[in-house]
Amino acid sequence: MGASTTMTRAARRRAGLARPVWSKVPQVTAAFWAVKILTTGMGETTSDYLARTLGPLPAVGSAGLLLVAALVAQARTRRHVPAVYWAAVVMVSVFGTMAADVAHVALGVPYALSAAAFAAALALVFWLWHRTEGTLAVETVSGGRPEVFYWSAVLATFALGTAVGDLTAATLGWGYLASGLLFAALIAVPALGHRLLRMPSVLTFWWAYVLTRPLGACFADWAGVSRERGGLDLGTGPVSLVLAVVITAAVAWSTARARRAPRLPA
Questions:
Q1: Does the N-terminal or the C-terminal CB of the chain have fewer CB atoms within 10 Å?
Q2: What is the model's pLDDT at position 78?
Q3: Three-state secondary structure call for residue 78
Q4: Dihedral (Cα; 14, 18, 21, 23), 10-degree rounding
Q5: pLDDT reported for residue 16
Q6: 222: nearest Cα among 34, 36, 33, 48
Q7: Which tens digits make up the pLDDT trace of 57-99?
Q8: With the CA atoms of 70, 76, 78 and 84 taken in that order, what torsion angle do they form, in degrees rounded to the nearest 10?
Q9: Contact 79, 24 (CB under 8 A)
Q10: Are 48 and 246 in contact (CB under 8 A)?
Q11: Mean pLDDT over residues 92-117, rounded?
Q12: What was the pLDDT predicted at 119?
């Protein structure tokens, strides 16, 4: 049994797989983190663009419907389908951004308070997930309750990251570029902790996952907002379009690569 397990793990490493073939979450590689950060930036600028174009309430309603459709499509898949998975992530990003912005703009909730509330919500999801399934490892997400917990956690991380990013950039007055550089430095901490201190991979994964949200959003805002707000004034619409094209190309490459990869038994 031990030799068989060792051979299976070695075969997985040679094949470039770090998860069971039945997992509905992509392999966590540098490409995964790159696309994840791009989706956070797109979610930020797309949310702002839709809110100004359609109005806050129609934008939230439209994003909510598209989010439900994307999650239903993801739930109906039996394995990881890159296009379906990343479409769901993009919609979670857009809707999660709107949730945090509506709490601040429409309800007047300070970003510090909303960040604390979203952090508590994320902690509750993690507690229920671990209590029910015994693990928070994304490799175990194959459908059913684990997938419900996974996407609940993803939505909470996007809302939390949005509130934290706006807290540093707007409330504390650090600006988008400085905030982006701050989160770029902070996201290296879990990577170094896992590599040098042997911190648990589940802990460092979710730690980094939360930080990708303000990291991508701050740089996207910096590119899109006006110079008066400390940005490059490229426009949220054009920035969203460029990010959509890059994400689409990355997902197409990932899909082609997945089709070429050998299938291994779970």
A1: N
A2: 87
A3: coil
A4: -170
A5: 38
A6: 48
A7: 888 889 999 999 999 999 999 888 999 999 999 999 998 888 7
A8: -20
A9: yes
A10: no
A11: 83
A12: 93
**Euclidean distance between CA atoms 44 and 52, whole angstroms:** 13
- What's the helix, strand, coil split of the chain in %, to 5? 80, 0, 20
Distances (CA, A) of 175 to 42, 108, 260: 19, 21, 44
**CA 228, CA 176: separation in Å to the nearest integer?**
12
- What is the C-alpha to C-alpha distance for residues 255 and 78, in angstroms, rounded to an integer? 15
CB neighbours of residue 78 within 10 Å: 9
Query: What tokens were used for 173?
Result: 């007055």
In this prediction the pTM is: 0.85
Pairwise CA distance, residues 45 & 216, whole Å: 10
Provide the residue count of the chain: 266
Average pLDDT score over the chain: 86
Buried residues in 130-151 as b, exposed as e (16+ CB within 10 A): eeebeebbbbbbbbeebbbbbb
Helix (H) or strand (E) holding 124: helix 111-133
What is the end-to-end Cα distance of the chain in Å, rounded? 15
- Tell me: the pLDDT tens digits for 238-265? 999 999 999 999 999 878 876 766 554 4
Chain center to CA of 208: 10
pLDDT in tens, 139-183: 889 889 999 999 999 999 988 888 898 899 988 999 999 999 999
